[in-house]
Amino acid sequence: MVAVVGVFQTTASAYEAVDELKSIRIEEEKINLLVPGDPGKAVKEIPTTEAEQPGMGAAVGGVVGGAFGAAAGVSLGGAAASMLLPGVGPVIAVGILGAAILGAISAAGGAAAGDALEKSLDPGLPIDEIYVYEDALRQGRSIVAILAENDEQADAAREVLERTGAESIDAAREKWWIGLRDAEQESYTAQGFDFTKDEVNYRRGFEAAQDPRLRGKSYQESDKYLVARYPKVYREESFRRGYECGQAHSHKERSDRVSGQ
Q1: Is residue 176 a part of any domain in this protein?
Q2: Is 62 helix (H, G, I), strand (E, B) or coil?
Q3: Residue finishing a domain among 115, 136, 168
Q4: Same domain, 46 and 162
Q5: In a shared domain, residues 108 and 51
Q6: 196/247 same-domain check
Q7: pLDDT score of 91 more than 60
Q8: pTM exceeding 0.85
Q9: Burial of 215: CB neighbours in 10 Å, binned 0-12, 13-18, 19+
Q10: Residues 91 and 215 in one domain
């Protein structure tokens, strides 16, 4: 399986992508969504498909997943969930992978959670990207994820996502870093270091700390994983400082969410 993911500014554009993905014969069970917002309101905002009666989506009982899927024209196969995420708000997940990602965001932090994520997420979807999805949802964006059968299907899915206005995960990651960069540069420079020269390694350390398997773990506690994943830069001072600052950033975000800030 090959995971293809796009980030959309609006729920409507995400569902436009879903319709086009289905039109190129990508099976519905391979299409997954994460949509922020109140379930009832979201159902009303999603246009119904031509094949269903007007208002059908909103009329489907009290099962959030069922109503949401009907409104979008997606067969859920029982894999739907709605959860209130601290600091993000209510999020609806449609599809097996979508539900797994939602659970991963909710559980992120600590070794136990990390082990659970490894087992629940498809091998094609990098666990260390979870923080990018979390940030996108926090900003009110929607996510469409496809588990393509092969590279050819993955390329076709990417074309659809691009045509319907999706932002790639790489682009979303860049925006996330741009939003943090100035503050990190100021702090790093104030300690007497050259951020311009060290930014690449510093950022790699900072991003490593966002991995849900490492959240809350000190540099020493993460030693084995970091050595295996970043063998060339692990011992660099800039990488270590980036990791430690990344952990501080994650801790502050979690604390702010708990306190409701």
Answers
A1: no
A2: coil
A3: 168
A4: yes
A5: yes
A6: yes
A7: yes
A8: no
A9: buried
A10: no
Inter-residue contact 81 to 65 (CB < 8 Å): yes
Spatial contact of 92 and 82, defined as CB atoms under 8 Å apart: yes
**Residue 211 in tokens:** 């991995």
CA distances from 102 to 82, 118, 132, 195 (A): 9, 14, 12, 35
Predicted pLDDT of residue 39:
56
Which residue is associated with the tokens 């609806």? 92
Adjacent-strand bridge partners of 82: 92
**Contact call for residues 14 and 144 (beta carbons, < 8 A):** yes
**Cross-strand pairs, 84:** 90
Q: What is the pLDDT of residues 103-123, one digit of tens each?
A: 777 765 444 445 555 555 555
The boundaries of the domain holding residue 233 are 191-259
Nearest to 169 by CA among 145, 193, 192, 187: 145
CA-based Rg of the chain, rounded to a whole angstrom? 19
**Does 58 share its domain with 116?**
yes
Residues 6+ away with beta carbon under 8 Å from 47: 12, 15, 71
3-state secondary structure at position 179: helix
Residue ranges in the chain assigned as alpha helix (H): 11-23, 39-45, 56-59, 64-72, 96-107, 111-120, 130-138, 151-163, 169-190, 195-208, 223-229, 237-259
- 70 vs 257, more confident: 257
How many domains, the chain? 2
User: What amino acid occupies position 146?
Assistant: I
Q: Pick from 235, 151, 248, 152: which is nearest to 206 by CA?
A: 248
What dihedral do alpha carbons 157, 160, 161, 165 form, nearest 10°? Answer: 170
Cα dihedral 14, 17, 19, 21 sign: negative
What is the 8-class DSSP label of residue 27? -
